[in-house]
Design goal:
The chain is mainly alpha-helical and 85 residues long. The protein has 3 helices and no strands.
Length: 85
């Protein structure tokens, strides 16, 4: 079995580099929040469009789900995924 190792590095940035790192962290947070907002909006729209039959089927275990061809097409076209977002 492979052993996982981690390395810890300590940074000592000067004032300029600390400012740049802060900007990068702010931009990362901004991008994450925008993506989350888009994901939630897309999922909310999907939930309004989806029929109660599909919602009931999603409550079943994955192996036991029985979707019709039309339902599979709807799910594949409108279900929010990372690729769609």
């Amino acid at each position: 079995m492979a052993t996982k190792r981690t390395h810890v590095y300590r940074l000592y940035p000067d004032a300029t580099m600390a400012h740049v790192l802060d900007q990068w962290c702010d931009y990362r947070r901004y991008c994450y929040n925008k993506a989350l907002e888009l994901w939630n909006a897309t999922y909310s729209e999907y939930r309004m469009l989806v029929s109660p039959e599909i919602l009931a089927e999603f409550k079943e275990p994955k192996e036991e789900r029985q979707f019709t061809e039309e339902q599979n097409l709807f799910i594949s076209r409108y279900y929010p995924t990372a690729a769609l977002i």
